[in-house]
Fold this protein.
Amino acid sequence: MKKRNAFTLAEVLITLGIIGIVAAMTLPVLIQKNNNRVVETRLMKFYSAINQAIKMAEVDYGDKKDWYETGLNGAEFDKDGNPVPGSSNQERWFNKYLRPYMKVVKTETLNDEGRFMVYFADGSAMAVSRGDYISDLIFYPGDPVRCLKKYSGRFDSLGKCAFMFYYNPNCTSASCKYHYDKGAEPYKIGWDGEKESLYTHSSYACSKTIGNNHLCTAVIQMNNWKIPDDYPYKVSY
């Protein structure tokens, strides 16, 4: 009779246990790497798309500084106090100058001062951060509702699943030197141009201890749209 070699039940269970431990250790790393790639790709894509839209709008409407507006607060509200879709002055401005040149799935008027959300074909979204200006732009690489539920608010989510851009080509103050006559750029208001200050700026630092993370988008841009090893947060979409 031939002797057959086989694994015992104990050996099989030990092997499966080892595989499970290795998987538990490596799966979070793989998931985070995928999150990084998605965020990096969509950030770079949005930056390219919105600035291409601005350039195309200039062909039809002239210099962007002539058709850019700052005070765009106000929207119409129905009898129940809800904003009428499309009535926001900000949304009207976007629909006229930028929407025709971008792959927009839908826009949604938000229930505060006429702010609105724009949803793009790749699953990302953009919102203006204030109800009276269209200069502070928050980009969401994924579902903004999921992002905002995960954190306490739209500013607490910055640098994690939301990223700040700034668009005001008419801003001539010293703090706007990286934005004057530019398109939509990663937020750099008050930045002195030093890489270190992206992490140490008293108001806008990309940091867990100081600032409000407005400069996190610039950190990624300065690293060729790749999340650097010293980035302070785990990003998601």
